[in-house]
Write a structure and sequence with these properties.
Layout (H helix, E strand, L loop, with lengths): L1 H9 L4 H19 L5 E6 L3 H12 L5 E6 L3 H12 L3 E7 L11 H12 L4 E4 L21 E5 L10 H4 L1 E5 L13 E3 L23 E5 L6 H14 L3 E5 L5 H6 L5 E2 L14 E4 L10 H13 L4 E3 L18 E3 L3 H8 L3 H6 L1 H11 L4 E4 L5 E3 L5 E3 L12 H13 L8 H22 L5 H8 L3
Parallel strand pairs: 1-2, 1-3, 3-4, 4-5, 5-6, 7-16, 8-9, 8-11, 9-10, 11-12, 12-13, 13-14
Antiparallel strand pairs: 14-15, 15-16
Helix pairs in contact: 2-3, 4-5, 7-13, 7-15, 13-14, 14-15
């Protein structure tokens, strides 16, 4: 960010112009959060972070109730803060410290930050939660616990490691700097990255044009996973979808699928002749799944020229080793599944998600990896890794991953989506999360079935 700013100043942009734009963007976002009549308390430190907050207050609509507290001496400001917070504030905007903080805060600052957190008022942090080291992600003695962090220009690496302080991370990308002249290993995904998608469908086409997805999913007690994977696939609009569940759940799966073909899995049965992609794993639980089926799925993973997506329990069946060069292979583990593949734990995966993604890909033939969780990662053994910015904690419910697996595989069944598989995987993750975000704006008790319907609005 510092180098980006230097390039911008050299190009004739000024700090004052950028601060004004940042302030305007903060004001608009805070206004979208606060209800009419709710008071907003702005905490401004002495650096540029404080300048951003002061500019935000100026841009706030006149009818909004706003109070600015300039904080230079934390000991002297503590009483003023407690008085202001006790006066009925509904939001706090934190601009005490920015990304330059690299030293432990003294006891007075720690006491003030503790008071801000203990006020139990939702906090919007500007650029980084005050007290957080934006490079390494640790608190310098104490840090603001934000509900939302509005970071400027691009995410800072430490913000991706400190969700407990950062809360929901949002980027203010257009703040008057020149277009970013730098590249990095990690890249933040935004919705406008997919402005060219979905591909335009030619007028003269038919269901054969858009592929045929085969889904191996569903066993006793877990037939819903097969249904959700199938419905997710339909939202991607391939030409055909066939689900192959275990025979014991054929009836419940078939009864909940209309435009999906359903055939009970039989050992040695050939793939449909028109098959253009395979998904296997959702709801395939032991002991019903035979060794014969596992070996068939491993064979597809090792040999078929078609795109293959491995999900859920099937991830445990894969064996280390190469896959056909230039052929699409995707795994979609959550941290627990990733830990089992690598012989570690979910906690170990979460401690360095980037390294975990690289190791997963290397272990399984340099496949593409969609590592699920907060800020889902997409990438492979080498090259860029993309951080998904959509989604919210309400995705943490059974069946959400089955829906995503089906949606992703439904896209990859189509020829036009196979040209750039990493972008296709990113698109699937983004739309899945964005659907959850849209739902959460209107209702707090939505289910995965609601998510499936919302995914249809992509």
């Amino acid at each position: 960010m510092r180098e980006w700013e230097k390039v911008s100043w050299a190009a004739g942009r000024t700090a004052a112009e950028v601060i004004d734009k940042v302030g305007c963007a903060i004001a608009r976002r805070v206004e979208s959060l606060a209800k009419p009549g709710e008071r907003i308390l702005f905490l401004a430190g002495k650096g540029h972070n404080g300048d951003d907050v002061r500019a935000a207050r100026k841009h706030l609509s006149p009818e909004r109730g706003a109070l600015l507290l300039d904080v230079v001496d934390p000991a002297q400001s503590l009483g003023k803060f407690l008085e202001a917070a006790g006066g009925g504030c509904s939001w706090i905007v934190d601009g005490l410290f920015g990304i330059g903080l690299d030293r432990p805060l003294d006891a007075h600052w720690q006491k003030l930050i503790a008071a801000v957190n203990n006020a139990k008022i939702p906090i919007v942090a500007v650029d980084a939660p005050s007290g957080l080291n934006a490079e390494i992600g640790g608190a310098e003695g104490a840090a603001i616990t934000a509900a939302i962090t509005l970071t400027v220009g691009a995410p800072k690496r430490g913000l991706l490691k400190a969700a407990q302080f950062v809360g929901q991370l949002e980027v203010l990308p257009d703040v008057g700097l020149v277009p970013c002249p730098f590249d990095s290993e990690l890249n933040w995904t935004l919705g406008n990255d997919f402005a060219h998608l979905p591909p335009r469908r030619p007028v003269e086409s038919n269901k054969g044009t858009y592929g045929h997805l085969a889904i191996y999913a569903g066993s006793f007690g877990y037939h819903g996973a097969a249904v959700l994977a199938g419905h997710g696939a339909l939202r991607a609009r391939p030409g055909l979808v066939t689900v192959f569940p275990q025979e014991s759940v054929y009836v419940p799966v078939a009864s909940q699928c209309q435009s999906i073909m359903v055939h009970a899995w039989r050992p040695g049965a050939a793939l449909p002749k028109s098959c253009s992609a395979i998904l296997f794993g959702p709801g395939l639980a032991a002991p019903e799944v035979s060794d014969v089926m596992k070996e068939e799925m491993r064979s597809h993973w090792r040999k078929t020229p078609l795109p293959v997506v491995a999900d859920a329990s099937a991830l445990d069946w894969l064996q280390p080793g190469p896959t056909p060069p230039g052929i699409i292979r995707v795994i979609t583990p959550h941290p627990g599944e990733a830990g089992r593949i690598l012989g570690s734990s979910a906690a170990s995966i979460q401690s360095d998600r980037v390294l975990a993604l690289r190791e997963l890909s290397k272990r399984l033939g340099d496949c593409s990896v969609l590592l699920k969780g907060h800020q889902t990662l997409v990438g492979s053994a080498a090259g860029k890794i993309f951080v998904n910015s959509s989604g919210n904690p309400y995705l943490a419910q059974g069946g959400s991953g089955d829906l995503l697996g089906g949606y992703l595989a439904g896209l990859l069944a189509q020829r036009d989506w196979q040209n750039d598989p990493i972008t296709t995987i990113r698109y699937a993750a983004w739309q899945h999360g964005a659907a959850a975000d849209r739902l959460s704006e209107t209702q707090s008790n939505w289910t995965v079935e609601d998510l499936s319907r919302q995914l249809a609005n992509c």
